[in-house]
Amino acid sequence: MLIGIVGKPNVGKSTFFKALTFQDVEIANYPFTTLKPNEGVAYVRVKEVSYEFGLKPNPKYGFVKGNYRFVPVKVMDVPGLVPGAHEGRGLGNKFLDDLRKANVLIHIVDIVGSVDEEGRYVGPGNYDPIRDIKWLEEEIDYWFYSIIKRNIEKEIRSMRSEKKDIIKGLAEILSGLDIKLDHIDKAFRDIGIGNEDYDALEDQEILFKLSSRIREVSKPIVIAANRIDIDIDVAKKNIDRIKREYPNKMVVPTSGYAEVLLKKLDFEGKIEYVYGDGDFKIVGELDEKEKIALEFIREKILKDFGSTGVQKAIDSAVFDVLGYIAVFPVATDNLTDSKGNVLPDCFLLPKGSKVIDLANEIHTELAKNFVRAIDIRSKKFVGRDHELRNLDIIRIVSQ
Ligand SMILES: Nc1nc2c(ncn2[C@@H]2O[C@H](COP(=O)(O)OP(=O)(O)OP(=O)(O)O)[C@@H](O)[C@H]2O)c(=O)[nH]1
Ligand SMILES: [Mg+2]
């Protein structure tokens, strides 16, 4: 699972990345601070199931905090995009190639409208952030289109002469972009192109439309309406406008700044903060500046918006937008692995995954020698084709 962080320059992408990964990256209030992609590990928040059984978990990766298991996912912060990037403006869009493997993108928008398209500071309220949604997605679509176009030009002749199924053909060509057959199939149906409609692929207008639809289904975008802390009222107005104009988009109000501070103080033992929660507890000595900042975060952000939104943004990306589920495999009825570790694993799987898919994720041998599985909660046997649900605990029995 790879989550890409995208947006124009100087909107808080690297700050957001730091809030997610706690990796020290360069942050500054001018455009093009980030020149090369940053890669790191973030964590999605899943209910900790051990506590239902009165057990203490031993996670093999990630960690437990509060009543949650934080499960690792990869994130990437890329340099800012400007209008015309696909024609080489700004830093161009070369680095977008690093996002080939992304499953979902988070678009960081400066929701208070304080920087223009190029990332220049213009002051809150002086730029309409809704504009970014359209042009930035178009730039990403152009990048996608150029990859698809390049690959199709190479293959179209042989596809035509061999009367190849173009959906399957495209899936092969685009496997490097982590695009599944389902994605392409859906895009073709949405645009109304048939299996052997080779002409459509040579019509650049249709090809752009198709590329854009494939991008939408294979790399959907969550909007992080960021920097809400700068001006709560302007932020709220703009969020409402985005929701009205784009009712189908997932929009999460965020403050990367607030999340970085809460995490830092939590690490320092000054507060107790479960990432993503709507409140924190003061447990250590704070200086005056910290007190004022925390008071502001509690009263103006957490109370109004429910959280800083940073955790919610990646959770929404993985669970709501991609529809992934979290499943806990175990080796014994005592909810342990063979060494006695309690619920050591938590797997993130695409919705619709079956018991056999889980077995395969654990080990291909386990899938090969699969005998049956047990749903620990219901204590019932389930077969290889049983569809898994979120937070299932599954014991797989093999030969
Ligand atoms: N008030 C406030 N400031 C923020 C927030 N997030 C980032 N900033 C500030 O915005 C400026 C830009 O932040 P960066 O994280 O460097 O932005 P970026 O989008 O990575 O910028 P480039 O790498 O240049 O594209 C810095 O001055 C940050 O301190 C936020 O949530 N609230
Ligand atoms: Mg940056």
Q: What is the element layout, followed by pairings?
A:
Elements: E1 2-6, H1 13-21, E2 38-47, E3 63-65, E4 68-77, E5 104-110, H2 130-161, H3 166-173, H4 181-191, H5 198-202, H6 204-218, E6 221-226, H7 232-245, E7 250-253, H8 256-267, E8 271-272, E9 281-282, H9 288-305, H10 310-321, E10 325-330, E11 347-349, H11 355-362, H12 364-368, E12 370-375, E13 380-382, E14 393-398
Parallel strand pairs: 1-4, 1-5, 5-6, 6-7, 10-14
Antiparallel strand pairs: 2-4, 3-4, 8-9, 10-11, 12-13, 12-14
Helix pairs in contact: 1-8, 2-3, 2-6, 3-4, 4-6
The site of magnesium ion (MG) has 4 residues, from helix 1.
Domain OBG-type G: 1-274
Keywords: GTP-binding, Nucleotide-binding
GO molecular function: ATP hydrolysis activity; GTP binding
Characterization of the model:
The protein is α/β, with parallel strands linked by helices and 399 residues long. It folds into three domains: 2-129 and 220-319, P-loop containing nucleotide triphosphate hydrolases (Rossmann fold); 140-214, Helicase, Ruva Protein, domain 3 (Orthogonal Bundle), CATH 1.10.8; 325-398, Ubiquitin-like (UB roll), CATH 3.10.20. The chain has helices spanning 13-21, 130-161, 166-173, 181-191, 198-202, 204-218, 232-245, 256-267, 288-305, 310-321, 355-362, 364-368, and strands at residues 2-6, 38-47, 63-65, 68-77, 104-110, 221-226, 250-253, 271-272, 281-282, 325-330, 347-349, 370-375, 380-382, 393-398. Strands 1, 2, 3, 4, 5, 6 and 7 form a seven-stranded mixed β-sheet that branches. The chain has a five-stranded mixed β-sheet with strand order 11-10-14-12-13. Strands 8-9 form a two-stranded antiparallel sheet. It is flat and about 75 Å long. The two termini are 30 Å apart. The model has no long low-confidence stretch (mean pLDDT 94). The structure holds guanosine-5'-triphosphate (GTP) and magnesium ion. Magnesium ion binds next to helix 1.
